[in-house]
Specification:
It is built from 14 helices and 25 strands. The protein has 478 residues and is of the alpha/beta class.
C-alpha cells in the first residue's frame, strides 16, 4: 500500500516515494510513503486558505466534537499505533504506547478548549464606550514536526491550531512519516472539512522550504535542530510571518550531596537514556557535588550494566536503537570527541549487535569532564551523558546556567533552600525537582529560553498565544 498525501480532503500521490525502515530491524519495511513537491504544497495551502472562512467561523461545538472524536479514536487504537511508532522510530513499545496516549489526551484537552474560548469586556476611559478584547485565529498555519516524537508533537501543534479555528498544512519529518500519516487518516475520518487539515510529506529541502516561504501561510510552528530553526526564523521574518521555534537542549541535572541516591540515579538514567536519549529534554549534563559523586557514578554504572538494549518491540526492553545510521554516526563521533578532549569513558559507548540488524548503541557515560568540553556544549541527541564534578551549590548553579541552551533543568536534593533557589535562578524554561528532566504534562506550557526556544510557548492554554491574534474593538451603543 502506498501512503499518500492528504490535500483538500483527497489522498494524493506525489512524485517520489520513500521507504520507512525499522531501525530495530533493517529488513523490516514499515511502509512506503509518497513525497510531495512544491506544487503540491502550494495546492495544500490553497485548499487551507479556501477552507479558512467557514472553519474559522464554525460552531464551537462542531470543532469540539471533531477533536473529541479524534481523541477517542487515537485511544482506541493505542496498541496498533504504539507498535507502528516503535517500529518506525525505535522507541520501546511501552514508551511508544505512552506517547500515543499523550496524543489522545492532547486532543481531548483542546476539545474542551473549543468551548472555553473567552475574551474581555472592559470600560473605556471615555464614558459610555465599551471595549471588547477577543482572540481570532491566525489563518493558514504551517507545522513542521520532528522525528523523535512522531505522534505527540504533531498532536500538540494540530489540536490547538484546529481548536482555535485555524486551517493546517503539516509537514512531518521525512524519516518517520508513518505515525503522522496514521494521525492524518484519523483526523480525516473524524469529519474535518476538506482543506481544513492537509498532510504534505516530503523533504525539508523541497516541502519545508516551500512551506516557510509561502505568502499565504500566516504562521509557522517548527520543532527541530537549532540551525534549521534559525533558517526558518529568518525566512519567516523576511515576510513578517509569525513563527514559533522549539529547538535543542543541553539540559543539566544537578545532584547535591544531600540528595536521595536512588532518586537521583533513577532521574539521571531516565532523563539521559530513555527514548535512547533522543529527547530535547534529555539530561545530558549530570552536575554532581563532590561528596556524592563517586557513589552516584558507581550506582549509575551498575544500573546501566543491567539496562536492556534491544529490538524496540521485544518484551522487557528498556532502550531501543538510535533512529538511523546518520544519528548513530553522530553519537559515536561524540564519544571519540569526548575521549580526545580528555574525558574518561566510564561505561558504554560501543555499537551493539543484536539478533536483528539495527542501529544499536550501548549507553555511554563520561566522567572527569568540564563545562568547556564540546561534549558539554553541543547537543548529541543520543544515549550519551557526561558527569561534571562541582564543589558546592553555587558552582553547580553557575555550571548549569553556563550553556547556550535553556530548555529544562533539574536538581536532586532534600534541601528546600536549594530547591527553591534553583527554581528561581535556573535559566531554563522548565525546572524539575527530584524528577527526570524529560516528562512534561500535556496541559502545561512547554518551552525554554536562549537557544532552545523562540516565540510563544506550546501546549495548554498558553498555545492560544501563538495560534490566535488579539483584536480590540470599541463600541458606542446608540
Amino acid at each position: 500500500m502506498l501512503h499518500k498525501n492528504l490535500i483538500a480532503g483527497e489522498w494524493t500521490e506525489g512524485g517520489d516515494v520513500s521507504r520507512n525502515i525499522n531501525p530495530s530491524d533493517l529488513s523490516d519495511v514499515v511502509g512506503e510513503y509518497t513525497r510531495a513537491d512544491a506544487k503540491q504544497l502550494d495546492d495544500a495551502v490553497a485548499a487551507a486558505k479556501a477552507a479558512f472562512p467557514a472553519w474559522s467561523r464554525s460552531n464551537i461545538q462542531q470543532r469540539a466534537t471533531i477533536l473529541d472524536t479524534i481523541s477517542r479514536e487515537i485511544a482506541a487504537r493505542a496498541d496498533e499505533l504504539g507498535r507502528l511508532l516503535a517500529r518506525e522510530e525505535g522507541k520501546t513499545l511501552p514508551e511508544a504506547k505512552a506517547e500515543v496516549g499523550r496524543a489522545a489526551q492532547i486532543f481531548n484537552f483542546f476539545s474542551g478548549e473549543c468551548l472555553r474560548l473567552s475574551g474581555e469586556k472592559i470600560a473605556s476611559v471615555r464614558p459610555g464606550i465599551d471595549v471588547e478584547i477577543t482572540r481570532e485565529p491566525m489563518g493558514v498555519v504551517g507545522l513542521i514536526t520532528p522525528w523523535n516524537f512522531p505522534i505527540a508533537i504533531p498532536a500538540w501543534k494540530i489540536a490547538p491550531a484546529l481548536a482555535y479555528g485555524n486551517c493546517v498544512v503539516m509537514k512531518p519529518a521525512d524519516l518517520v512519516p508513518g505515525s503522522a500519516w496514521a494521525l492524518a487518516e484519523i483526523i480525516h475520518k473524524a469529519g474535518v472539512p476538506a482543506g481544513v487539515f492537509n498532510l504534505v510529506m516530503g523533504s525539508g529541502r523541497v516541502v519545508g522550504e516551500a512551506l516557510i516561504n509561502h505568502k499565504d501561510i500566516a504562521a509557522v510552528s517548527f520543532t527541530g535542530s537549532v540551525d534549521t530553526g534559525k533558517h526558518v526564523a529568518a525566512a519567516c521574518a523576511a515576510r513578517l510571518c509569525k513563527v514559533q521555534l522549539e529547538m535543542g537542549g543541553k539540559n543539566p541535572l544537578v545532584v547535591m550531596d544531600d540528595a536521595d541516591l536512588n532518586t537521583a540515579v533513577a532521574a539521571a538514567v531516565n532523563g539521559a537514556y530513555f527514548s535512547t536519549g533522543q529527547r530535547c529534554t534529555a539530561s545530558s549534563r549530570l552536575i554532581v557535588q563532590s561528596g556524592i559523586h563517586d557513589r552516584f557514578v558507581g550506582t549509575m554504572i551498575e544500573r546501566l550494566q543491567k539496562l536492556k538494549v534491544d529490538n524496540a518491540v521485544a518484551d522487557g526492553v528498556e532502550m531501543g536503537p538510535v533512529v538511523d545510521q546518520k544519528q548513530l554516526d553522530q553519537d559515536l563521533s561524540y564519544v571519540d570527541i569526548a575521549r580526545g578532549e580528555g574525558a574518561k569513558l566510564a561505561w558504554g559507548g560501543e555499537r551493539l549487535n543484536r539478533e536483528t540488524e539495527g542501529f544499536y548503541m550501548q549507553p555511554a557515560v563520561f566522567t572527569e569532564t568540564d563545562n568547556t568540553m564540546r561534549i558539554n556544549r553541543e547537543e548529541v541527541f543520543g544515549p550519551v551523558a557526561s558527569v561534571i564534578r562541582v564543589d558546592d551549590y553555587d558552582q553547580a548553579l553557575a555550571t548549569a546556567n553556563d550553556t547556550p541552551f535553556g530548555l529544562v533543568a533539574g536538581i536532586c536534593t532534600t534541601s528546600l533552600k536549594f530547591a527553591s533557589d534553583f527554581k528561581r535562578n535556573s535559566e531554563a524554561g522548565m525546572v524539575m525537582v527530584n524528577l527526570p528532566t524529560a516528562g512534561v504534562d500535556y496541559h502545561v506550557p512547554f518551552g525554554g529560553r536562549k537557544g532552545s526556544s523562540y516565540g510563544s510557548r506550546e501546549q495548554g492554554r498558553y498555545a492560544a498565544e501563538f495560534y490566535t491574534t488579539v483584536k480590540t474593538a470599541y463600541v458606542l451603543p446608540v
